[in-house]
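A further point concerns the way the authors explain their paired sequence and structure data. Nothing conveys this as quickly as seeing an actual entry. An entry of this sort, consisting of the sequence and the corresponding C-alpha cells, reads as follows:
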Amino acid sequence: MEVRSEGIRLRFWFVRLCSSIVLWICLVQLVTVSELWHSHFISGITTGIYNIAQIQLPNQNDANNGVVDKSPPPITFLPPRNYTSNGFLRVSCNGGLNQMRAAICDMVTIARFLNLTLVVPELDKTSFWADPSNFEDIFDVKHFIDSLRDEVRIVKRVPKKFNSKYGYSTLEMPPVSWSNEKYYLEQILPLYGKHKVLHFNRTDARLANNGLPLDLQKLRCRVNYQAIKFTPQIENLGRKLIRMLHKKGPFVALHLRYEMDMLAFSGCTQGCSEKEAEELKRLRYAFPWWREKEIISEERRSQGLCPLTPEEAALVLRALGFGRETPIYIAAGEIYGGERRLAQLRAAFPQIVKKEMLLTRDDLQQFQNHSSQMAALDFMVSVASDTFIPTYDGNMAKLVEGHRRYSDFRKTILLDRKKVVELVDMHHNGTLKWHEFADGVKQVHEKRIGQPTQRKVIIDKPKEEDYFYANPHECLCEERNCDAFLGHHNSSQV
C-alpha cells in the first residue's frame, strides 16, 4: 500500500510540473505577442484614458454645465521634428503667473520659427509676489517637452560645452516689444552667427498681437491650451475645488482684483482710508519699474482704469440679476482691507467662498508662500466656472477670457468699468433709482459676454489693440468660415 501511494504522489507532482511548464510557455508566448501589438492596442487604451482626463481638466465638462470640450489633445505624441538647430534660446519670464504663461507661448513660437532649441523657461522670482517656484513646480515639464517635440526641441539646460569655459558667450537682451516675425528673422537670427546662446531677460508682450502667419498664431494656441499643463498636485487640488463648487450648483467666479499690488500699481484708492492710501503710495514708490508715481485716484477711476471695489462689485452683480443664493467664488489673493471690505459683498451674497474656506490647511500647506501656485488654482476654477466676471482686465482676466472663448465661448461678463462707475455714482447720489440703475447695467453688458468677435487692430498702437490671448480668433473657427462665424460687422483686416 505504501509503494502504491508513493507512486500516486509522484504521478501527481509530475502532472503539476508539466502543467506549470505549459503555463510558463503560454505566458512567454503571450508576452512576446503583446510586444507586437502593445504600441497599437494597450497604448491606445492608456492614451484614450489620458485624453479623457485631459478633456475634463481644463473645462470640467460635467453634467452640471453641459459644455463639451472642442479641442482634445493629440491621441499620441507625434515623432520629434528633425531639424538643424541654429542655437539655444534661454528665457527669463517676468511678471505674475499669467503674464509668464503668455510669454512661454510666445517664446516657443519664436524658437520654432527660428529653428532654435528652447531651454525650459526660468520664472520670475524678484517681482512683487516673490514666488520662488521654478517651472517644474507649477507646470508639468515632461508633458511640455513631449507634447511639443514635433515642433521644437526643448531641453532642461544648455549643454556644458556651450559655456564660457569653452569659449562661448551668452548674449543677454530684451527683444523689442510687440515685434512681428520679420524682426526675429532679420534682427535676432543673425546674432546666432556669433553667439550660440541668447538669453531673453524680459519676455512680456514680445510678440505682436496681429499680422503674424496663421501657423504661428495657431502654435501659440497649441502651446497655451494643450502643451501647458499644471503639475498633478495643482491639477488634482483644482479638480477637487471645482467638484466642491459644482455640488452647490451653477457658480460665478469673481476675479476681484482689489489687492494691494493692483491698487498700488494703478493708484486707485476708492474706499480706502487716508492711512491706507498713503501705504499704497509708499509701495508704488518703492518699486522703480512702476514709473508713474503721482496719480489722482478720482481721475483714474472716472476713466475706467481702476479695479472695481468690493462694494461696487456687489451692486453690479445684483444689477445683473444674480440672486442672494448664487455661489460666488472669489478668485483672488488677499483682499486689501480684509473682511471689512468684503462685508457689503458678503451681505448681498452670503454664499461667497474662497479656496481657503473650502480646502483644509493640509490641502494648501504645500502651496503656501507660492503665489503663482495659488493663482493656478484660481485659474482652473475660473476657467471651469459657469460665469466668469473679472473686475479688472489684467493678465489673468485676459487669459481666462481667451481660454473660455476657446472652450466654446463660455459666458464671460466683460465689465465696462467706465460706464459702471458712472452709473454707480448716479445711483449713489440719487439720480438713478435702483431699477433704472439695474436696467442701465444690463443694457451696457448685453453684448459683452465673451461672444465670437474679431480682435481690434490699431495700426502703430499695439498696446491699445485687443490682446491675442484674450481673443485668439484665428484658433476658434478652423472648421467654419471665419467671416460668417465672427460676423461682418466684426471683420477687419489682420
About this structure: The longest helix spans residues 2-59. DSSP finds 19 helices and nine strands in the chain. The first strand starts at residue 88 and ends at 91.
